[in-house]
Amino acid sequence: MTARKTALKTTTLWFSVAALTSLAGCGAGGDVNESSAAPIPPVTSPAPPPTSPAPAPAPAPAPAPAPSPAPAPGTAATYYFSDCQTGAAAGCVAGNDANPGTSAAAPKRTLTSVNINALPAGSRLLLARGGSWNHSTIRLDNRNTTAAAPLTFDAYGTGPAPTLRVAAYFGFEFGEFANTVDDRGYVFRNLKLDGLGTGQWAFWLRGLIRDVLIENVEVTGFYTAFELQGNDPISFLTVRNSRILRNRGMGVIGTMNDSVFEGNLFEGNGSGAPTVHPVYLSGGNRNVIRNNQFVRNSLTNGVCTGGNVTAHGMINGLTIEGNTIVQDASADGCYGISMMPGYNTPEGFRNLVVRNNTVVNLGGCGICVSMAPGAVIEGNKIIQDQNRWHLGISVQLTEQPNDLVGGGEIVRDNVGCYGGTSSASGTFLSIQTALQLLFNNVTRTGADATTGVCAR
What we know:
Elements: E1 14-16, E2 78-81, E3 124-128, E4 132-134, E5 138-140, E6 151-156, E7 163-165, E8 170-174, E9 183-189, E10 192-205, E11 209-215, E12 218-228, E13 235-240, E14 243-245, E15 252-257, E16 260-262, E17 265-267, E18 279-285, E19 288-290, E20 293-295, E21 299-300, E22 303-304, E23 309-311, E24 314-316, E25 319-321, E26 324-326, E27 335-339, E28 348-350, E29 353-355, E30 358-360, E31 365-370, E32 376-378, E33 381-384, E34 390-396, E35 410-412, E36 415-418, E37 426-431, E38 437-439, E39 442-445
Parallel strand pairs: 2-3, 3-6, 4-7, 5-8, 6-9, 7-10, 8-10, 9-11, 10-12, 11-13, 12-14, 12-15, 13-16, 14-17, 15-18, 16-19, 17-20, 18-23, 18-24, 19-25, 20-26, 23-27, 24-28, 25-29, 26-30, 27-31, 29-32, 30-33, 31-34, 32-35, 33-36, 34-37, 35-38, 36-39
Antiparallel strand pairs: 1-37, 21-22
C-alpha cells in the first residue's frame, strides 16, 4: 500500500450534541494516521433560505430481482456437471467426464473436462444443486462471448447451491495483466464459492475485462472476494443479490468503471486491521454502491476497528445510496462511509453522491468526506446508541497541495439520532469547506432518538 498522509484536524463544528473531549481524524478507516485536536466551540448553523426549501431526497431504487436462466442460443452448447465431494447433499450422484454431459441424465463431473475458452457465445455450464467440487483455478479468456451472448455458469435441479471448494489460489481468473484485447460476457448465478479459510481470491478480474454479471452467489472463506486488478480498465461489472460472508480480508478491492454493487450482504468480513475494508475503491468512474447491507465487518474481538466503505485516489461519479452499515460496538478507528485522502499522489472525488444511507453505531465517524467539490450528502440517518464520542457527518479540507479543493457541498435532509446515555458526546455535522449549502439537518437525542424519524 502507498505511503500514508497526515491526518486532518476539524476546525469548524456544527450541531454539537455535547462538548467534545477529543476529536480523532477521520481518514480512510485507518489508512490515514489519526490525531487529536482540542475541542472547538460550536457555532450557529445558518437558517435555511425561506424561499428555497430543500427538495426531498430521491429514494434509492430497489435491486432488480435475479432473472431465471435464459435459454441458450441455438448455436451455443449446454453442459451439465455433478460431483459429490465434501459437503455434498445426501443423495448426490457424481457424473463422469466420459459422459457427453449434454443432459442432466448423463452429466460430466468436472469443469476441466470441457475446453471452456473455446465454447461458442451463449454457452452454459450448469452445476447440480446439492453438488460439491474440489475446485482449482479456472482462467477465463473466451474471445467468443459477448454481453448479449455470455458464457454462463449456473445451477440446475433442486436443493442447495452447488459449492466450489477452493483451498488455494483463485476461484476464477479473468484475462491477464495489461491485456488490451477485448474480453467480455460472463455470468455467474446461483453458486457458492468457499475458500475454506485458505483460498486467496474468489474472482480475480484484470485486463480489458467487461460485462461480467455475478448474482445470487455466495462467496465465503477467501482472503478477498473480488480483486479488481490495479488500474486495469475493468468495466461494467455487476454484483447483485449476493452474499459476501466471513472473508478474512477485503470484500471488494481495486478500480472499476461503470459498475454496480447492489442488494448484497457483506457480513463478517475483514480482520479488523485499519487498512482492510469490506469495500475499498482505489479509483474509477461512474460506479454505484446501492442497497447493500454491511453487518458486523472489520471486527477485533467483537468490536469494529476498521473501515466499512472506503475510497481513495482520483474518482469521478461515485454514488453511494440506500446502504445500511451496522455495528454492535465500535472503536475510534471504525468508520462508516469514508471518502478521504490516503495516498501521496493527487486525489479527489468529483460528482460524489452519498444519499439515503443508514449508519448504526460506528466509531470515530459515520460519513467522512474530503476533496469532494460539489458533493451531495443527503437523506442519511446516523444512529449512535453507544456511550461514546462520535462524529456523524464530516466534510473536511485536505492538507495536500495537489488534491482537489473541496467547496460548494450540499448537505441536506440528514438526521442524527443520538440515543446514548447522558455521558455520551458527539457532533452531528462538522464542516470545514467554503460556500457549502446546509439545510434541514436535524439532531434527535434521548427518547426522540428512537422514535419518529429515528425509528429503527
